[in-house]
Amino acid sequence: MGNPSKTIGYFAMVALLALLFGGFISLYHCFFTSFSSQLLLSRNERIYHQQSIMTYRDVLGTALSKASMGNNKTLIIAVVNKAYVEQDVKGDPTTMFDLFLNSFWLGEGTRSLVDNILIVAVDQTAYDRCQFLKLNCYKLETDGVDFGGEKLYMSQDFINMMWTRTFFLLEILKRGYNFIFTDTDVMWLRNPFEKLSNDETEDFQISTDEYFGDPWSEKNRVNTGFFFVRSNNKTISLFETWYGMKDNFTEKKEQDVLEDLIKGGIFRDLGIKARFLDTLYFSGFCQDSKDFRAVTTVHANCCRSITAKVADLKKTLRDWKRFRRLGVNSTVNVYWNTHEWCLESWDNDLI
C-alpha cells in the first residue's frame, strides 16, 4: 500500500473539487433560471405592449367594420356632441339626436339602416349616450379641445369642429370605406341609397342648399351636411386638398372653402365626377321638397341654433306622419309647416 497520508489528501482534494463543482452548478442553475424567467417576462411584456398599441390603433377599424354593409365597405357616419344628445331636464327633454333616430323609425325602409350608422362622439357625454342606446359608437379624441357645448353657427368653435370632422372623414376614406355622411339635423324619411346613383364612376354626390335643375352644374350651392363619397385616390386627394386649405381661410367654414374649390375647378383638375343632389329628394329648410311622395331627407339648414332646429324639425316629423296617414290614392295636398323658429333664429340670440 502507498502512503496513507497521501491517500487521505488525495480523497480530500477530490471531495473539495466535487463540492466546488456542485456549488458552481447550483449557482449557474439559479442564475440561468432567474435570467431566463426575466427574459421571458420581458418578452411577454413587449408582446403585450405591442398588442395594446395595435388594439388601440384598431378601435376605429373595428368600429367601421361592424357598421359597414356586408363586404362592400359602405356605411353611414354621423358626428355628435353633448349639445346634440343631452336632455334638458327642466324643459323639453327631446334632443336633436332623439329626432334623428326617430326619423329612422318613422321613415319608409329606414329602420334597418340604424345598424349601419357609426356614431362618432366628440366628447364623453355624447359617447355615453350612444353606448346607452346600444348603437355603433366611436369616441373621437380631440387633443383636449372641448367640443361639448353648442357651437353656434359660424362661431370659431363651430368652424374648428367642422374642420376636425373633415380630417376624420379623410381618415375613413384612406381606410377604403365609402360612406354617407349625415348631420344629425337631417331627417331620414326614406332610404337614400335608393335615390343615390349606383354608378360607380360617380365619385361624390352632395346635397344642396339651392338646386337649379342640373345635377352636374357647379352653380348649385352645396351643403356638406349630407353627402355620399366613394373611396378612391381622387376623393382622397379632394379631402386632402380641402383640409389643407384650413389655415388659409380661418374665418370660413369648411363648406364655404369647398365651394371655393369647386368654383376653382378642383373637380375637373382631379377628374372627379360629382353629382349635385336634387332638393326634390334631398331637401332642406333652405329649399323645401315640393313632393311628399318623393322626399327622402329633410335637413334643418338655413337655421342658426339647436333650439330652433329642434322646434322646426318636430313640425317636420308631424307633417310627415300626417302624410303617412293618408291613403295611397289620396288626392289631398300636404304642405310643410313654415320654419318659423329657424327664420327667427337669425335675429334672436335666445332662440
Automatic annotation (TrEMBL):
Residues 113-313 form the Nucleotide-diphospho-sugar transferase domain. The chain crosses the membrane at residues 7-28. Signal peptide: none annotated. Pfam families: Nucleotid_trans. One of its GO terms (molecular function) is transferase activity. PANTHER family: EXPRESSED PROTEIN-RELATED, OS03G0731800 PROTEIN. This is Nucleotide-diphospho-sugar transferase family protein. The lineage of its organism: Eukaryota, Viridiplantae, Streptophyta, Embryophyta, Tracheophyta.
